[in-house]
Specification:
The complex is a heterodimer of chains A (113) and B (113).
Chain A: E1 3-7, E2 10-13, E3 19-26, E4 32-38, E5 44-52, E6 55-58, E7 65-70, E8 73-78, E9 87-94, E10 103-104, E11 108-112
Parallel strand pairs in A: 2-11
Antiparallel strand pairs in A: 1-3, 3-8, 4-5, 4-9, 5-6, 7-8, 9-10, 9-11
Chain B: E1 3-5, E2 10-14, E3 19-21, E4 24-26, E5 32-38, E6 44-50, E7 56-58, E8 64-68, E9 73-78, E10 87-94, E11 101-103, E12 107-112
Parallel strand pairs in B: 2-12
Antiparallel strand pairs in B: 1-4, 3-9, 5-6, 5-10, 7-8, 8-9, 10-11, 10-12
The chains are: A mainly beta (113), B mainly beta (113).
Amino acid sequence: SQTIHQWPATLVQPVGSPLSLECTVEGTSNPNLYWYRQAAGRGLQLLFYSVGIGQISSEVPQNLSASRPQDRQFILSSKKLLLSDSGFYLCAWSVGQGNQPQHFGDGTRLSIL
Amino acid sequence: AQSVTQPDIHITVSEGASLELRCNYSYGATPYLFWYVQSPGQGLQLLLKYFSGDTLVQGIKGFEAEFKRSQSSFNLRKPSVHWSDAAEYFCAVGSGGYQKVTFGIGTKLQVIP
């Protein structure tokens, strides 16, 4: 069966420090991969999606970037964190056509001090 | 552009009572519709999905949802709520292509004894 792993679960970082959040999927090939940020009362905001290795699409201009170095690995990064980058970050995967649902990891709680 | 409205931000029900969470969507074609549940500090878990066919969809944990095209709605229901159902519920609408999914802002369910 397919599984998705996100780490770390929680992270506290100072303003201006770099960031790397990792997400890996097991049990499937060539998944679509997504990074979301969730803020209280605002639902989920799609940050990046990827349909293949090295293919990244950005939905919202921001201080973050994403990379997909391997088929089932998706990384969210920043060179210098801002206070506004605090939030709950979720990785998700899906396969196939638009009628297939997305499946989520357990998320990373990022706090910027 | 597609959109989702969840008009109730917070709902409180008594254990054993019935539940209905409202969801209205906006999409030009036949939508792909989803309901997810999120426990505190966790990722989103898929409850059920609608693509076509029978407009009453059964999901996990005793939940069901009914697609009503004339009302652009996809309300989630459960006949008897358990304390463990306390969580946040998200309705989502998807389209084809890379599966861009738009999420509602969520409805937080509180269950009282």
